[in-house]
Amino acid sequence: MRINEILKNKRTLSFETFPPKKGYDDLDKTKAVLAELKKLNPDFISVTYGAMGSNSKGNVDIASFLKNELNIEALAHLTGGPSSYEDVDNVCKQLKENNIDNILTLRGDKPIDYSAEYCKTFKHATDLMDYINSKYDFNLVGACYPEGHNESDSLYEDLKYMKLKEEKGATFFITQVFFDNEYYYRLVNEARKIGIKSPIIPGIMPLTSPKSISKTKILCGSTIPLNYRNMLEFYKDKPKSFKELGYNYAVYQIMDLLAKGAPGIHLYVMNNVETAKEVFKRLENVIDEYF
Ligand code: FAD
User: Which ligand 1 atom lies nearest to the CA of residue 80?
Assistant: First the structure.
């Protein structure tokens, strides 16, 4: 099923996960994690795609497991940066064979040792969208950036390309992680002003260890508000309190987003079942009333 059809009827709850990292050693472990996440009744689960195109088989296998064995809608990420036409054809054919209808079209994180080979075929997510649309019929989804993409001169520059993604068929968007909801509200406001109509689903990541902060900052560059930063610093040597802060801050963000009409919540749980369960436990009544 196309996830945009679900969004027409309800607010969605979804998770972001990744395929096994160590080849197939971890496959059973990943499947067990997904089976646990299913118990929380998400509307869909997305599966990341390696920035270097590595592990594309793992991405398709996990998306297929979600769709065909767990009966959960899968959103398969696909990065054009490291891919050739042949790579994209292989993935699209396998996704079709496995009845997966939804692709999050991305360029991918530029590798540190970025070379001219990267983005040789698909310079931007929009080029990947063009190619997929020319040969296949998928529901395409786009990524967007509440603080503007770090390679863009300004948020407004980045928004132009978000609009282009919609024109090329993105039926909804999922945002980069953010910790200050005001950035999300500004993005939505500015996007509506230039005519972007599709739902924009906020992406929320509970920070559960001091290590996760530096990783998140390096990968996404998202601003952490001073008050939250101070609390993270204060609790950094107390792992249980630190987690409690991370769960509760995510819940606070979610409650505020719901109050302002967000069309769904995408939780970057990154295969951490405990995080998903702890956040859901705190939101149990809210989920009953708002999803
Ligand atoms: P693009 O849309 O190509 O944007 C990159 C830059 O180019 C931006 O500055 C944009 O403004 C500009 N731009 C866009 N289109 C054009 C155009 N047509 N002409 C000129 N400039 C343009 N990375 C992974 O490697 N694997 C994943 O699975 C993954 N999943 C993600 C999921 C979400 C929800 C998000 C928000 C990000 C994800 N990323 C993932 C990271 C993402 O790939 C990086 O942020 C990457 O730097 C940009 O990807 P993009 O698809 O937004 O690229």
Answer: 51
> Best of 105, 106, 166 to mutate for ligand 1, by most ligand atoms within 8 A of CB?
106
Nearest ligand 1 atom to alpha carbon 149: 9
Q: What is the pLDDT of residues 232-253, one digit of tens each?
A: 999 999 999 999 999 999 999 9
> What are the angstrom distances between the C-alpha of 257 and each of 42, 121, 275?
18, 38, 19
Measured in Å, residue 125 CA sits from the centre of ligand 1 at 6
**What gap in Å lies between CA 188 and CA 117, rounded to an integer?**
34
Can you spell out the DSSP letters for the chain? --HHHHHHHS-EEEEEE---SSTTTTHHHHHHHHHHHHTT--SEEEE---TTSTTHHHHHHHHHIIIIIS--EEEEEEESTT--HHHHHHHHHHHHHTT--EEEEE--PPPTT--TTTTSS-SSHHHHHHHHHHH---EEEEEE-TT--TTSSSHHHHHHHHHHHHHTTEEEEEEEE-S-HHHHHHHHHHHHHTT--S-EEEEE----SHHHHHHHHHHH-----HHHHHHHHHTTT-HHHHHHHHHHHHHHHHHHHHHTT-SEEEE--TT-HHHHHHHHHHHHHHHHHH-
> Which atom number of ligand 1 is nearest to the Cα of residue 142?
51
Q: Which residues are catalytic?
A: 16
Q: Which residue has the tokens 């054919």?
A: 93
Convert the pLDDT of each residue in 69-99 to its tens digit: 999 999 999 999 999 999 999 999 999 999 9
48 touches ligand 1 (CB under 6 Å): yes
pTM of the model: 0.97
Mutate to test the pocket of ligand 1, among 14, 107, 178 (most ligand atoms within 8 A of CB): 107
